[in-house]
């Protein structure tokens, strides 16, 4: 496979590429990566990946997560369906993927199935990441019926004790019941989607159970198992072994500033999934005004950190200045 082909598959996955490509999307994707490579600060290309924080509310209190610790960085709330639809309408000629999660539990937004269905009807592949710790079978079945493409379920343990060492307030038995119920419903309804991944975030207290979890995942019948090392500045919680990294963690250049955009529940725009505090927002969405925000001073100055020339003479966004991607370029 060519380098270009590998890049496409790595960025999007086969499903999104195969099912959702149009000449306009492909051209935009190529221009976005060319702009990234050239370090252009003002761009005519659009993002082709959308991350939507459909809510920043969560039902768990995971100690390694800012939301779980109550550090929301903005008011708590739920994205209205109408705002989501306006945003999709503006970007749908270019979007391959909509990731409908970021800092909260997406199933707490009751409009999630309508959002999935709207995006999928508009030829955009959807993905949801959930703790699956809900007592509503109907809501889970709605995900399947809405046409969701990918579902990642966070299960970082193999029994209640190992699971709760991370997922404070979670119910391991409930999650496993829901996972089995979802797989059974998908099979009964004759669908191949959503593709379901068991994700195991590895930290010091649960690293001994990774292989057992992999075996359980095989037995229950999920489509994939992913072990990824926790991101933490506290070295005492890091695993001693080597596991996979979180998506995007190992990149040195920030392609997100050219390819991806984040819509928060309150209509604010962010540059990447690390960002959750309101003071780090890059703008606020107004219908019909997306490209003005996409090329505002904050986006341009942030892109300039990766080799761009000219543009606004403003201090770079604090968030990016302290990002490992920028720091690794200075070394
Ligand atoms: S914080 Fe890092 S990953 Fe996020 S947009 Fe800035 S440079 Fe990119």
Topology:
Layout: H1 3-12, H2 14-20, H3 23-38, E1 49-52, H4 81-91, E2 97-99, H5 112-121, E3 125-130, H6 137-145, E4 150-154, H7 160-164, H8 172-188, E5 195-202, H9 210-220, E6 224-229, H10 256-259, E7 260-263, E8 268-270, E9 283-284, H11 290-294, H12 297-304, H13 318-321, H14 324-330
Parallel strand pairs: 1-2, 1-7, 2-3, 3-4, 4-5, 5-6
Antiparallel strand pairs: 7-8, 8-9
This protein binds iron/sulfur cluster.
The site of iron/sulfur cluster has 12 residues, from helix 10, helix 13 and helix 14.
Could you state the order of secondary-structure elements as H and E?
Answer: HHHEHEHEHEHHEHEHEEEHHHH
Distinct small-molecule ligands in the complex = iron/sulfur cluster
Please summarize the sheet with the most strands: 9 strands, mixed
Number of strand elements: 9
Uncertain stretches of 5 or more adjacent residues = none
Instruction: Give the strand content.
Output: 5-15%
Which structural category do the helix and sheet elements fall into? alpha/beta
Q: How many separate helices?
A: 14
The multimeric state of the shown protein is single chain
- Largest sheet, spatial ordering of strands: 6-5-4-3-2-1-7-8-9
Output the radius of gyration: 20 Å
| Dominant shape | globular
Question: Which labels suit this protein?
Answer:
14 helices; binds iron/sulfur cluster; 331 residues; alpha/beta; 12% strand; nine-stranded mixed beta sheet; 9 strands
